[in-house]
Amino acid sequence: MSSSGKTILTQFSARRILIPVLLGIGVLAIVFIRKFDREAFAQIQWSWLSLLWLGIAIVMIGLRQFFYMWRIRFLTDDYLSWKASFQVILLWEFGSAATPTAVGGTTVALLLLIKEGIQTGKAIAIDLCTILLDMSFLLLALIVAVIVFSFNELLPGGHVGNFNRAFFALTFVLLLGYTILVGYGLFGRPAAVKWMLVKVMSLKWLRRWQHKAVEIGDQLIAASAELRHRNAAFWIKSFLMTAGTWTARFLIANCLIMIVTPLDEHLLLFFRQIALMVILMMVPSPGGSGFAEISFPAFISDMVPAGLVATVTALWRSFTFYPYLLMGLVILPRWVNRVFHVSNRATTG
After folding, report:
1. Given 93, 177, 272, 314, which is the most exposed site by the fewest CB atoms within 10 A?
2. Angle at the Cα of 58 (from 56 to 64), degrees rounded to 5?
3. pLDDT tens digits in sequence order for the chain, 349 residues long
């Protein structure tokens, strides 16, 4: 195995993965101490309906993975096989769970695509394309949510809720600006966006990041050249796949709540999770660990009996976060052996 492969294994070793796991479990333990009610838990009526909702939740996990795999295959023009797509998406999710959301996902994705043999320019285009698609879906969904529900309904009250509201407003503005910048850079004038980034980073207190601005600008120009020839059908299909994967992801919580207690506000919970996801994108902890376990109870506190909030939160993280850390640790060594073994053979041959 090459030194690059060993470096990747070291960066995502089991010891490093313990950080988000311990942080999340630690905060979850605090939530349990404060909110768990043994009597409320004992009153849960386990039935075949509970098993049905559990099965639907598992199906949602499968659909989320399928739409992600379908989209990456589509964006690579079917260059990746279904097996390779499965590994890439799992490791993509693994990277997002093991590193801060705003950093890990896109960085890991670019590395994965390049090591799969996709040319750097096209890999950058695919990476930025997924960012644009994901951000567009989330921002459009939030606009619909604000139209359908009031702001107070979308973001619950309380101490944590008030913090979430301020953080949500800041994050929404930043993501909207970032999405517009990426979109204009890809389909407008990428050279102008590069010039603007370099100019901003030339300020005295930002000069240390100027080289990064040049790199991002060059990536935008390369990605723009790759994506400009795509027709409307390409973007419609890509967006529908994106909507499919995010919809399946957010419906998991609805299903988990239905396992333990009836839920009336399915649509409101769906949109609340989108708001929560936007907030978590700016959290510096790996995969939003700690903050997610604190915020999620605030988002479901008026939908779930107080004594079951901790139980639902634990189920939610067990289905949407921890499995990707565990599966990533299993898949990563196999992926590294496969791609670096092929790379080494190609080099020596």
Report:
1. 177
2. 100
3. 444 455 555 556 666 667 777 777 787 788 777 777 777 777 788 889 999 999 999 999 999 999 999 999 999 999 999 999 999 999 888 888 877 655 556 677 888 888 888 887 788 888 889 989 999 999 999 989 989 998 788 887 655 556 667 777 888 888 898 888 888 888 888 888 888 878 877 877 777 777 777 877 887 788 888 888 888 999 999 999 999 999 999 999 999 999 999 999 999 999 999 998 888 888 777 778 888 888 898 899 889 988 899 889 999 998 998 888 888 888 888 888 888 765 554 444 4
Distance separating alpha carbons of residues 117 and 260, to the nearest angstrom: 46
Q: How far is the first Cα of the chain from the last one, in angstroms, to the nearest whole number? A: 16
Which tokens hold the place of 16?
């490093």
